[in-house]
Amino acid sequence: MRGLSNSRAEPIFPGVAGAILFLLGLTAIALLPVNWVGVTLMVLALVLFVLEAKITSHGILGIGGAVAMVLGAMLLIDSPVPEMRIRPAVAVSVGLPFALITLLLTALVVRARRSSVATGSEGMIGQIGIAAGPLSPGGKVFVHGEYWDAISLTPVSDGVPVKVTGLEQLTLFVQPVSN
Question: Closest Cα to residue 62, out of 75, 47, 74, 76?
Answer without folding.
Answer: 47
